[in-house]
UniProtKB/TrEMBL annotation:
Taxonomic superkingdom: Bacteria
Active-site residues (renumbered): Y105, D146, H247
KW Protein transport (keyword) present: no
Cofactor binding description: Probably binds two magnesium or manganese ions per subunit.
Single GO biological process annotation from the record: DNA repair
Site feature: Transition state stabilizer: N148
Required cofactor(s): Mn(2+); Mg(2+)
Domain Endonuclease/exonuclease/phosphatase: 4-247
The name this protein goes by in its record: Exodeoxyribonuclease III
UniProt similarity note: Belongs to the DNA repair enzymes AP/ExoA family.
Residues annotated to bind Mg(2+): N7, E34, D146, N148, D246, H247
Length: 257
């Protein structure tokens, strides 16, 4: 089963890119972030025509997450628990083929320090709490999406330039490592512990051509799913397509349970 995550950076504006990607790569499940579309503007007809079922949590102008699946999809919940006043659309869960798929779009946090970083760290605490609950279910779980975190210096081009950025600040990386330490497996690093792998390249300064990237899109696997991990990769070529997102799709394959 091939599971992917892709920050599309606007699902309607980049729909041709998304549909081309789905046609060429045919992942079983794709988690999308940054839909930038209200609930009623999600292009469900085009997604269905491409062979995918979908659930989505939209938001006007910003954020938004979705889970696309070539198989039956059963929504479990939407919105990250822990703050009833948080109206940002950043989290959704569904069961697909007996795997709990948790799609997330973690806050950016910039400018830092400030209220946006505070919100990011609070969101991380809520994610840690939900993740602990998920582990207690003792079922196969994958938490995937745009975490807006480079966990180590290996995950960022010229790390010295990012020391004050909310994606690389020590307290943000510590929050990520605390999450993983609950018992999760970072799928990419499990298979490629020392390789330089990026999933995002800025539109500025010719970053993609120079491979001046970041690894901020991650898969965290529960102990019940991690042994089934077989392969993983990044579709870096998609980032080079015309009118593409600044992220590339990232994927893993897991064997049957």
């Amino acid at each position: 089963m091939k599971i992917a995550t892709y920050n599309v950076n606007g699902v309607n504006g980049r729909l041709p890119v998304l549909l081309r990607y789905l046609d060429e790569e045919k992942p079983d499940v794709v988690c999308l972030q940054e839909l930038k579309a209200p609930q009623e503007k999600f292009p469900i007809e085009a997604i269905n025509a491409a062979g995918y079922n979908a659930i989505w949590h939209g938001q006007k102008q910003w954020n938004g997450v979705a889970i696309l699946s070539r198989h039956e999809i059963q929504e479990v919940g939407r919105g990250l628990p822990g703050d009833p006043d948080d109206v940002q659309s950043r989290y959704i869960e569904a069961m697909v083929n007996n795997i709990l798929i948790c799609c997330l779009y973690l806050p950016n946090g910039n400018p830092a320090p400030g209220p946006k970083l505070d919100y990011k760290l609070q969101w991380f605490k809520r994610l840690q709490a939900r993740a602990a609950q998920l582990l207690a279910f003792n079922i196969p779980v994958v938490m995937l999406g745009d975490y807006n975190v480079m966990p180590t210096e290996l995950d960022v081009y010229k790390p010295e330039r990012w020391v004050d950025d909310a994606l690389f600040r020590p307290e943000v990386r510590e929050a990520f490592h605390t999450l993983v330490a609950q018992g999760w497996t970072d799928a990419i690093r499990k298979l490629y512990p020392t390789e330089t792998i990026y999933t995002f390249w800025d539109y500025f300064r010719n970053a993609y051509a120079r491979n001046a990237g970041l690894r901020i899109d991650h898969f965290l696997l529960s102990p019940q799913l991690a042994p089934r991990l077989t392969t993983a990769g990044v579709n870096t070529n998609v980032r080079g397509w015309e009118k593409s997102s600044d992220h590339a799709p990232v994927w893993i394959e897991v064997g049957e349970g």
